[in-house]
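Researcher: Let's do a round of design. I'm pasting the structure tokens now; please hold your answer until I've finished.
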């Protein structure tokens, strides 16, 4: 005769059934929540897209404020580069350039190869007076789409504007410098006296009369400096003044001519020293303002602007954390830039080996590195091999660094 389960056994069975029911309810609840989230997410994407499309319709109707509202709702639901760039375009239309620049930057943070964002930010920065930055944006956009006539025109216009701005700044600086040098050399007072003498009477030297040039006027350093075509101006002045000035030199030979030549040489030397000092100060100022790049675009623009100046390129590398290189470059590192970076690293290797090794190591972690190395020319590879042997793995390199660099040699395809 079968035994009936005792009370303890029945309680265990009942508890097990209760647990199964709880798990079933829990799974149903989770499944319900997941379906709700998926449905809500899909609705969000649909709503974000519909808001963007509605914004485009308002833009076509030139209702820019309404378009901005739609793009803003689209961004709130699902941020993407296109919505930011579209809102930036609407901001440009109502001359809110600061907001347009900020939106283009946000778009580029999401997609650093988005051509329209570069072009629109160039327009915004041009209007904000950031001409140098606008040129960099326009240049990069043109590099991404070199056949675009619209981008070519934009780049040419901004480049011309920047050149004009540079000339104006240089004019002011040169004028100020010239006046200061004239005062220092004591030539200003003498020049004024000579001009007055020419206007009032002929000068007599060694019994010969020198007649003033009729209708002569003071040719100020300011006018010469402000001329955009200095060579043409120089020829024009030479035609008018040279014959009389030559006769003056032949007829009148003041006893102090040696002193004048000496002063001219001193003035020339002073100008050269001042120019060198100004260049040194400018270099130091630029070096102070170098900031770590956040994208391949920013790095490449800074790197190209410092082309030919290893000191500034080295400073750019030093302010950039080596471990951030994969995130900065993503898929945008090119073989010429890689080659140039390694050469720059070699220039400060003995000064800061730890930083140099970290750079060489972290560059290998950049996406598509193996493909980039394959694109190096045979000449570049030979030069890198020479750098490895003569600099990185020389007898003076500590063993702990030499071992790491020896292992990295194969990553750069530099086997002997």
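Researcher: That's everything. Go ahead.
Model: Designed sequence:
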């Amino acid at each position: 005769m079968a035994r009936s389960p005792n009370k303890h056994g029945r309680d265990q069975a009942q508890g097990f059934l209760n647990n199964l029911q709880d798990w079933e309810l829990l799974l149903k609840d989770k499944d319900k929540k997941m379906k709700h989230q998926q449905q809500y997410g899909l609705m969000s994407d649909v709503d974000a897209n519909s808001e963007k499309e509605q914004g485009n319709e308002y833009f076509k109707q030139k209702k820019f404020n309404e378009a901005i509202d739609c793009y803003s709702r689209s961004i709130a639901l699902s941020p993407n580069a296109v919505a930011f760039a579209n809102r930036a375009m609407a901001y440009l239309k109502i001359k809110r350039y600061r907001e347009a620049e900020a939106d283009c930057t946000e778009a580029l943070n999401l997609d650093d190869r988005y051509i329209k964002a570069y072009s629109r930010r160039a327009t915004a920065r041009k209007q904000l007076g950031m001409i140098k930055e606008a040129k960099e944006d326009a240049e990069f956009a043109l590099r991404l789409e070199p056949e675009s006539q619209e981008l070519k025109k934009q780049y040419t216009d901004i480049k011309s504007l920047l050149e004009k701005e540079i000339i104006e700044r240089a004019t002011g600086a040169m004028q100020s410098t010239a006046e200061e040098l004239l005062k220092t050399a004591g030539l200003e007072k003498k020049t004024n006296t000579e001009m007055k003498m020419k206007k009032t009477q002929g000068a007599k030297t060694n019994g010969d009369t020198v007649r003033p040039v009729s209708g002569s006027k003071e040719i100020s350093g300011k006018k010469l400096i402000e001329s955009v075509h200095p060579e043409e101006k120089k020829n024009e002045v030479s035609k008018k003044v040279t014959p009389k000035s030559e006769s003056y030199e032949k007829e009148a030979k003041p006893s102090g001519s040696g002193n004048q030549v000496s002063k001219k040489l001193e003035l020339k030397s002073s100008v050269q020293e001042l120019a060198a000092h100004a260049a040194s100060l400018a270099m130091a100022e630029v070096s102070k303002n170098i900031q770590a790049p956040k994208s391949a675009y920013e790095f490449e623009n800074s790197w190209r602007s410092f082309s030919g100046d290893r000191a500034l390129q080295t400073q750019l590398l030093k302010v950039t954390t080596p471990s951030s290189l994969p995130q900065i470059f993503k898929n945008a590192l090119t073989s010429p830039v890689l080659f140039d970076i390694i050469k720059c690293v070699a220039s400060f290797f003995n000064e800061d080996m730890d930083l140099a090794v970290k750079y060489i190591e972290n560059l290998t972690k950049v996406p598509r590195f193996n493909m980039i190395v394959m694109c190096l020319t045979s000449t570049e590879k030979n030069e890198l091999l020479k750098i490895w042997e003569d600099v990185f793995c020389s007898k003076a390199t500590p063993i702990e660094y030499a071992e790491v660099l020896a292992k990295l040699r194969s990553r750069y395809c530099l086997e002997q």
